[in-house]
Design brief:
- About 40% of the residues lie in helices and about 15% in strands.
- By secondary structure, the chain is an alpha/beta fold.
- The strands form 2 sheets. A 6-stranded parallel β-sheet has the order 3-2-1-4-5-6, with helices on both faces. The chain has a 6-stranded parallel β-sheet with strand order 9-8-7-10-11-12, with helices on both faces.
- The chain is elongated and about 70 Å long.
- The mean pLDDT is about 90.
């Protein structure tokens, strides 16, 4: 009975939370619509695009990086607004017109900077989540000359991109954006820029670790549903011991998470704490094993052979996370679980895939 009541209470709280968000977004969208510039005041010829990147992860940044490259190659100037999660990543790109920091506790400097660079076209690729409160507020205060979005649910965008298939991979909606802007693209590449210092730190780590081929293993994702259990990690490490004459297993991840995993003759934890150094280790790897989607997207950007593990997750029915945010390239072997947590899955199919992938490398 107590368990049932808790479940009911959680459902009630979720429904109330969603209702409050919808109300807030409706009020904000009305305010944006009232403040929007009239068509006569809009500069339709500006080639400066500003893309907000608020409350998104590193993997999302890698996915959208290729879009920036494509836009710049086609004559657009592109600026990005990023918060503390991804600002460091965009800082390495030398093709940006501008990079602006979003601080939720001190928005005034950002508002001032954006007003100074008008006219520009504001392109919002966010799904409708709580982060849209921040984006809608930006629109209300800054009043861009034109706005482009991916949904017509709220009255905030001058133009809405026609998304041909909302159940297709996330990259297809960015192709739809390119086509909306008059760029006849059918696909684009992901992008990541690794600074020279971080790349050399990673290479030094590898030189000091092994002269064998590297297999990178990321045992923990950004959320607990993407964590391998201790038993699964031990099974993968034990399985890789069969290949210790040719391969060395490098454990990647946040230092405090991977610290308890012991080093051994053929297993070494990465000690370079930089995300970029980890990306370079992936670049120098023969195989990547990851339940973490940020490293999945990094692996695609670097075109690395990979085994990626996706627990069962429906985003908004019937959209499956494994479809929308899957690896989407030939060198990736995707494990689609029925379980909602990686730690609850049978590890044996993953071990079989390791055998298959290492066999393919040897051929």
């Amino acid at each position: 009975m107590i368990t049932w009541l808790r479940k009911v209470n959680r459902s009630k709280n979720y429904i109330l939370k969603r209702a409050k968000l919808r109300l807030k977004l409706n009020l904000l969208s009305t305010a944006v619509a009232l403040a929007r510039r009239s068509p006569a005041d809009r500069d339709s010829d500006t080639n400066h695009l500003v893309i907000p990147f608020i409350s998104k992860g590193i993997g999302d940044a890698v996915v959208i990086g290729g879009i920036v490259d494509t836009l710049v190659k086609n004559g657009f100037r592109v600026s990005v607004i990023a918060d503390k999660r991804t600002h460091f990543l965009f800082r390495e790109w030398d093709n940006l017109e501008g990079l602006y920091f979003y601080d939720p506790d001190n928005k005034k400097p950002l508002f001032t900077a954006l007003k100074k660079i008008n006219p520009f076209v504001f392109i919002d690729s966010h799904e409708i989540t709580v982060s849209n409160v921040d984006v809608f507020n930006l629109l209300r205060v800054v009043k861009p000359y034109r706005t482009i979005g991916f949904t017509d649910k709220y009255r905030v965008y001058d133009e809405v991109v026609t998304v041909k298939d909302r159940l297709a991979h996330i990259s297809t909606r960015y192709v739809d954006l390119l086509q909306h802007l008059g760029i006849p693209a059918t696909e684009y590449d992901y992008s990541i820029v690794i600074p020279d210092g971080d790349a050399e730190a990673a290479r030094a780590f590898i030189r000091n670790t092994t002269d064998k081929k590297i297999v990178s293993f990321i045992p923990y994702g950004s959320v607990s549903e993407r964590f391998f259990s201790d038993q699964q990690i031990e099974a993968i490490i034990r399985h890789m011991a069969k290949y210790q004459d040719a391969y060395h297993l490098v454990i990647l991840g946040e230092q405090h998470k991977i610290k308890p995993i012991p080093d051994s003759a053929n297993v070494t934890k990465n000690t370079t704490p930089s995300f970029f150094s980890a990306a370079q280790i992936i670049k120098d790897s023969a195989l990547v094993i990851s339940p973490d989607t940020s490293f999945v997207h990094v692996s695609k950007a670097l075109n690395k052979r990979m085994i990626c593990i996706y627990p069962y997750k429906i985003l908004v029915a019937p959209a499956d996370n494994a479809d929308i945010w899957g690896p989407n390239y030939p060198l990736a072997a995707q494990v689609r679980l029925k379980e909602r947590r990686v730690m609850d899955a049978d590890v044996r199919p993953i071990l079989e895939l390791i055998d298959q992938q290492l066999s393919a490398i040897a051929q």
